[in-house]
Every structure is written in structure tokens, then in C-alpha cells.
Design goal:
Order of helices and strands: HHEHEEHHEEEHEHEHEHEHEHEHHEH
Radius of gyration: 23 Å
Number of domains: 3
Shape: globular
Number of helices: 14
Largest sheet: 8 strands, parallel
Number of strands: 13
Helix content: 40-55%
CATH class of the largest domain: Alpha Beta
Strand content: 15-25%
Length: about 400
């Protein structure tokens, strides 16, 4: 009996599928017909009426895929069920074409599924800000400059304008694509400062950096008045850890200025956010909140291509919750926005490695960056720019095209 060599090919993107087929000598027209068959995806559709769920399952079966529904859905002994669609990219695109003629609101599911597939498989090409644009053909490194006395790692380091300028120069020289200026500590348990204090800390640094360097500047604030002053002083982006929920005027300030926006998920203000880290479904809640934040921005007039999202590692999450988000980062791409990740020297890394001091946590921070690059994250907010740049570039070279 003849013996053949068999092995698994881990083909996670269209580019990898095309490359594998090209190396086999497959006809280009055949590649275009078959490329979607090698990419699998699972899509959860929540709270579907059982009549619609049964049609979804039958349609999936008819195209060679499948759908999982709750017990009792087939007999309609229950009113609603979640539906897990399990198929290839090509099968789900075929489902999109078949559903519009079906009843029970399935045309709406088809439209939403079509958008989800585009978002998931087509990463954002750029992020626009006020008077600038960041091209996302490779991951971007956001250097942290805290002009605070009490930040958890570098508090007090850059309080003076000259010191902040020196730090900005160093970060720019070692690979930063954007700088993030913060005038209020948001570490767990921290107490906020007044808007006047925050403006006095942030604005002189923004002005000095803008006058000296040609690099996009983000300001980390939850206060609309601080955001307005920073944008008037030359900032291009606002990084709001509250996802526009702490100050109802923030969305309007960002929209009217033409600034870019990073919205993050948190649960409560820093002084209380770690008091409740239990979730029924952590990733579902974070995604839902980020979608709401992005929608608030859009309703205020912020352009879609000026919005990025941040799942908020360490903000209202337990160690297990932080790790779950890191494991499931690719799911956030279905929202259709660039993803920012901030894990730099955070306490969950100390818990894993038994490193109580933030100064010890560089290697753990870099490990999270390497994994996140492979899961499509486009922005990394970090203290250690040079080391992160090296890891990002190496990981990107290994995974580019995924």
C-alpha cells in the first residue's frame, strides 16, 4: 500500500489561502472561486425568534454548513433562541444572498451579517484625526507621556515641559507613530483632578510638542473642557477611557473640532472600577459598550474613519477577564474600527509573573504585544516605545497578511 504525507495548513486569512493555492499551481480563476471555502468563521446571532432560527438552520444545512440553536427551538416550545452560524466565509456570503427573500426579519440579519463579514475580513486601512491620517499598513505604536505625579509606572517623570519634550523626542526617535499625553492618573483607585489642573498640565506640553515635532498627538482625558483646550493647542486625537460616558459634551467637542477619537470600555470611574469585575458574558458586554460609544460619536457628527476602539485591559476587569479579552481580540474587528490595546506594565502581568513592581513587567508586556499583533491589533499604547517597536515589527513580519 502506498504511503502519503499529510499535514495541516493553518490558513487564517484570504492572503494565506491564495498563497497556498498559488504555490500548488492552481489556476487563478479557480483560486478566486475556492478561496472562501478555506476560511471558517463562527457568528453568534442573539435573540432570534424560533421561526426565523429554524429557517436559518435549514438554509445553513442546505449550503453545506450548520447552525446551532437551543433545545426546544425546532418545536417552537420557546419563543427565542441564540443561533450560532458555523461555516466558511463563502458559505456565509451565500447565506447573505439567500436570506432577503425569507420572512421573520431575516433580510435584516442578512444585511447585518454582510457588514460583519466585511468588517471582520477587511481591516481599516487608516485612522484619521484632526489635520492628520495614520496609515495602518502595519501596527502603530502610541507612546505614553504622563504629565502627572501619580501614574502607576511613570508618575512624576515628565511633569516639567522640558522633560516631556525630551521624552517625546526619544519616543519619536525610537519608533513612536503617535504620542498620548495624559494629565490625570486613571490607575485603579486613583482620584480625579479638576479640569483647571488637568489643562495646566496638558496644554503646555501639547503646545511644546506641536511646535517642535511633526507627529500626531492624542490627549488622554474624559473632560470635554480639557479636550477642547488640548485640540485648540494642536492635539489631533482624544483618547477617552470612559467611551464618552463621563462627560456628555465630549462627543460634540470631538465632532466640531474634526478630531480623531479612541473610545475605551471601563466599568465606573477609576476609584471604583475594580469593585465589580464579574460579568455574565465579558466580551459580549465590552463589545456592546464599545458599539454604543462609537454610535454616540457618530450621532454627534464624528466621521466613522476617525474612530478607534479599546477593550480597556485593567479597567473593571479581573485577571481572568483580562486574559479572556486577550485570547479573543480578533472578535473586536467585527465592529469595523481599528483596535487599540493598552497592556503596558499593568498589574495583571504582575499577577501572572509574580512581579509586584511595574518596573519588572517589561517582558510580560512585550509578550502581550506579540500575541496581539497576530490577532490583528493595530495600535499599542506603551511606555517602552523602542522595545515595543522591535517586537511589533518582528511579529508583523511573521504574520503580515493575516
Amino acid at each position: 500500500m502506498s504511503s502519503f504525507d499529510l499535514r495541516v495548513l493553518n490558513l487564517e486569512s484570504e492572503a494565506q489561502v491564495v498563497s497556498a493555492m498559488t504555490s500548488l499551481g492552481v489556476d487563478p480563476a479557480g483560486i478566486q472561486r475556492m478561496v472562501g471555502k478555506a476560511q471558517s468563521i463562527n457568528v453568534l446571532v442573539e435573540s432570534v425568534p424560533c421561526g426565523a432560527a429554524n429557517i436559518l438552520k435549514q438554509e445553513m444545512l442546505s449550503i453545506g454548513a450548520d447552525a446551532a440553536v437551543a433545545r426546544g427551538s425546532v418545536t417552537c416550545s420557546r419563543s427565542y433562541t441564540d443561533v450560532l452560524l458555523m461555516g466558511t466565509k463563502k458559505q456565509l456570503k451565500l447565506l447573505v444572498r439567500r436570506l432577503p427573500c425569507q420572512p421573520f426579519g431575516l433580510a435584516s440579519i442578512a444585511q447585518q451579517l454582510s457588514s460583519l463579514l466585511v468588517n471582520y475580513y477587511t481591516p481599516s486601512a487608516y485612522l484619521a484625526g484632526k489635520d492628520c491620517r495614520l496609515t495602518l499598513d502595519c501596527p502603530q505604536v502610541m507612546g505614553i507621556i504622563n504629565v502627572t505625579p501619580d501614574s502607576f509606572y511613570d508618575g512624576g517623570v515628565s511633569l516639567a515641559v522640558d522633560t516631556a519634550l525630551s521624552q517625546a523626542e526619544s519616543q519619536l526617535a525610537t519608533g513612536a507613530n503617535i504620542l498620548d499625553i495624559g494629565g490625570e492618573s486613571t490607575r485603579p483607585g486613583s482620584v480625579g483632578v479638576s479640569e483647571d489642573v488637568e489643562i495646566a498640565r496638558v496644554v503646555p506640553v501639547v503646545e511644546a510638542i506641536r511646535n517642535r515635532f511633526d507627529i500626531p498627538i492624542s490627549v488622554d482625558t474624559t473632560k470635554a473642557s480639557v479636550a477642547r483646550a488640548a485640540l485648540d493647542s494642536g492635539a489631533n486625537f482624544i483618547n477617552d477611557i470612559s467611551g464618552l460616558t463621563f462627560d456628555p459634551l465630549m462627543a460634540d467637542v470631538v465632532a466640531t473640532s474634526g478630531a480623531g477619537l479612541f473610545v475605551m470600555h471601563t466599568r465606573g470611574r477609576p476609584e471604583v472600577m475594580q469593585s465589580d469585575t464579574q460579568y455574565q458574558d465579558l466580551v459580549a458586554e465590552v463589545i456592546s459598550c464599545l458599539r454604543c460609544s462609537a454610535n454616540l460619536a457618530i450621532e454627534a457628527g464624528v466621521d466613522v474613519d476617525k474612530i478607534a476602539i479599546d477593550p480597556g485591559i485593567g479597567f473593571g476587569k479581573s485577571l481572568a477577564g483580562n486574559l479572556e479579552i486577550l485570547q479573543r481580540l480578533s472578535e473586536f474587528h467585527a465592529l469595523g474600527y481599528p483596535v487599540l490595546l493598552g497592556t503596558s506594565r499593568k498589574s495583571f502581568i504582575g499577577s501572572i509573573l509574580n512581579q509586584p513592581q511595574a518596573e519588572q513587567r517589561l517582558s510580560g508586556s512585550l509578550a502581550t504585544v506579540a500575541v496581539a499583533v497576530s490577532r490583528g491589533v493595530q495600535f499599542f499604547r506603551v511606555h517602552d516605545v523602542e522595545e515595543t517597536r522591535h517586537v511589533v515589527d518582528t511579529a508583523w513580519a511573521m504574520t503580515a497578511g493575516r
